[in-house]
Design goal:
Number of strands: 5
Strand order of the largest sheet: 3-5-4
Order of helices and strands: HHHEEHHEHHEEHHH
CATH superfamily of the largest domain: Winged helix-like DNA-binding domain superfamily/Winged helix DNA-binding domain
CATH architecture of the largest domain: Orthogonal Bundle
Strand content: 5-15%
Distance between the termini: 65 Å
Helix content: 55-70%
Number of helices: 10
Shape: elongated
Oligomer: single chain
CATH topology of the largest domain: Arc Repressor Mutant, subunit A
Length: 177
């Protein structure tokens, strides 16, 4: 594979979405005809692999091959099923109170949150952040923000009012006394 094809492949992999051809050509220093040749080379090199090159009006993108669709359905179904009520509640608390410790989440919810937090981390909605102490803090992930169509958690509905909810403060302070 030529270096130009490797560069385009890496760029498409990192982008994770369709990249307009004019942007690809500019980034790779290619003209339109050269880009077409490189895309053909890349497409042919992916034959028989689990990913393919998709060329649409929006641009060029690496996507999973239709040949592996059935295999991926089971995996994706597990990861995209609706959240349980308990998981949704925990996710909302992490979104509005995070970064927050498991201990604080359990004080608010009144139940063990270990399994739910593990599930939310597995699904990529929550991330663990190490602290100076022993407790891990949990916060929402960039994927969560992307799924919500926002760029910062402060854009969540009623963020300030819910973040500074006095009742939650009372629950947390009563538990530490």
């Amino acid at each position: 594979m030529t270096q130009a094809a490797q560069h385009i492949e890496a760029l498409l992999f990192v982008a994770g979405e369709a990249v307009p051809k004019k942007d690809l050509a500019k980034l790779a220093g290619l003209d339109e005809a050269q880009l077409a040749d490189v895309l053909l080379e890349l497409s042919q090199s992916l034959t028989g692999h689990g990913i393919v090159l998709m060329d649409t009006a929006q641009g060029v993108q690496l996507v999973t091959s239709p040949d592996v669709g059935a295999f991926l359905e089971t995996f994706l179904a597990e990861g995209t099923s609706a959240l349980s009520r308990a998981a949704s509640e925990t996710l909302a608390l992490v979104a509005y109170r995070g970064p927050v410790s498991r201990y604080d989440l359990e004080a608010i919810r009144g139940v063990d949150c270990r399994r739910i937090l593990s599930h939310l981390v597995f699904r990529g909605l929550v991330v663990k952040e190490p602290t100076d102490g022993q407790a891990m803090l949990y916060d929402i992930s960039a994927d969560f923000l992307m799924h919500m169509g926002i760029t910062a958690k402060e854009q969540l509905p009623q963020y300030e009012a819910l973040r500074n909810n006095e009742r939650l403060r009372e629950l947390l302070s009563a538990d530490t006394q």
